[in-house]
């Protein structure tokens, strides 16, 4: 390998993505300068009362399913950022009624955008929209890029479908719910991490409501004992990962 090729390899392996947590299951990832925002639910979340959604940038908004705690601020953020929303057709139809015009409809499958390839994968959950209408299939996303690959499961229980994630891409990190009751708990998220062959997990969907409150230290220790890392950033906190 010549010096130039070695240098390029070193640059790629040291690249970092900026991850910002906005509370509940809402987070941003900057991929090659493109801002991806997932499942925007900030304004109704009392734990995120100090976050002004007008400060949240987005080029794309990815929505895993139609529940209000994943879509509440989607229309408002899409309006003030001009972002394109990536979501199921049924969610798209609801958003269009809210005035959202830039939408890329997806179902389970893959599509290559300017920032990388997105694969929408199944999640074991439900997906009703805020008006009570059908929200289509709930899902998660595998994002592949020149920098890193990652998996966001969306709201889901532990499922054998997760064994297929490394087929699409081995995740450098994964974003998984850990609050239990509606989704996986920390122990189940650890099993998911093993199934997807990923050692760096960012926990979401916990503590927003009493029924999904967790013992953070216990959750972290479970991952540490399995030689894995569970990251629990504060609301508004950014990580270079």
Automatic annotation (TrEMBL):
InterPro entries: Metallo-B-lactamas (IPR001279), RibonucZ/Hydroxyglut_hydro (IPR036866), UPF0173 (IPR022877), UPF0173_UPF0282_UlaG_hydrolase (IPR050114). GO terms for molecular function: hydrolase activity. Keywords: Hydrolase. Gene3D superfamilies: Ribonuclease Z/Hydroxyacylglutathione hydrolase-like. The keyword Iron-sulfur does not apply. Residues 23-205 form the Metallo-beta-lactamase domain. Belongs to the UPF0173 family. This is UPF0173 metal-dependent hydrolase GCM10023092_13620. It comes from Rurimicrobium arvi.
């Amino acid at each position: 390998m010549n010096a130039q090729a070695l240098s390029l390899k070193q640059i790629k392996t040291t690249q970092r993505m900026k991850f910002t947590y906005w509370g509940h299951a809402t987070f941003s990832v900057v991929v090659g300068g493109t801002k991806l925002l997932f499942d925007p639910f900030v304004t109704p979340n009392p734990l995120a009362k100090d976050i002004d959604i007008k400060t949240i940038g987005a080029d794309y908004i990815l929505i895993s399913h139609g529940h209000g705690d994943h879509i509440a601020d989607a229309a408002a953020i899409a309006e003030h950022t001009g972002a394109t929303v990536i979501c199921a057709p049924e969610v798209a139809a609801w958003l269009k009624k809210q005035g959202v015009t830039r939408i890329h409809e997806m179902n389970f499958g893959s599509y290559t955008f300017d920032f990388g390839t997105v694969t929408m994968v199944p999640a074991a959950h439900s997906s009703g929209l805020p008006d009570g209408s059908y929200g289509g299939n709930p899902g998660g996303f595998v994002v592949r890029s020149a920098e890193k690959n990652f998996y966001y499961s969306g709201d889901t229980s532990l499922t054998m479908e997760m064994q297929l994630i490394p087929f699409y891409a081995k995740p450098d990190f994964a974003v998984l719910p850990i609050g239990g009751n509606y989704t996986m708990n920390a122990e189940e998220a650890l099993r998911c991490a093993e199934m997807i062959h990923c050692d760096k997990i960012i926990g979401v969907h916990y503590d927003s409501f009493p029924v999904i409150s967790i013992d953070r230290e216990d959750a972290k220790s479970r991952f540490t004992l399995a030689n894995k890392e569970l990251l629990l950033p504060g609301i508004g906190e950014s990580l270079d990962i």
